[in-house]
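Supplementary Note 3. Input sequence used for the single-chain structure prediction.
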Amino acid sequence: MAHILVTGWYPPNKGKEMVKVYTSKDKPAYPDFVKKINNWVTASTDGQIKAYAVYECPDDKILDTMKAIAKRYTLYSTVEGYRYYAELLMDAEEAIKLLF
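The predicted structure, written as discrete structure tokens, is reproduced below.
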């Protein structure tokens, strides 16, 4: 299984607007093979609200999952000042094997 980390940032004064978008029933649905593992929010040192979400998908569905995430997060990007970055994560033990 593959894991994708999405990190998002937005100004604190946009919190209510982000909640409205996040709880909207009109968001694009994720395909059945995409599973959200967890979602966290914190205040970052630069004064922004920072959110993390981790998704899981089959290895052969990474591209489709990235497309689905982009489609969903484009909706969040309608909130002024919101930005996000999606990263494909590698298991640390697998990464170490690449070094040796």
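The longest helix spans residues 62-76. The helical segments are 15-22, 62-76, 92-99.
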